[in-house]
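Worked Example 4.2. Consider the chain below.
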Amino acid sequence: MMTIERIIRIVAGSLVLISLALGVSTSPVFISANFLWITVFVGANLFQSGFTGFCPLEVILKKFIR
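Applying the procedure from the previous section yields the following structure tokens:
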């Protein structure tokens, strides 16, 4: 069974990997270095979530699941 926590980890990991692939200039699918801001955003959200327990994606997922 997919829990909300597991979905959050999958989405966060996917966003980081995709944004790195699109944002690193040596990548074969490079588009723009601006995609690295997605990595910064996800990392910052994970960091603050560790301290506060608040995760915006968790709030969104709870509204869709219930």
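The chain has one domain: 4-65. The two ends are 15 Å apart (CA to CA). Compare this with Example 4.1 before moving on.
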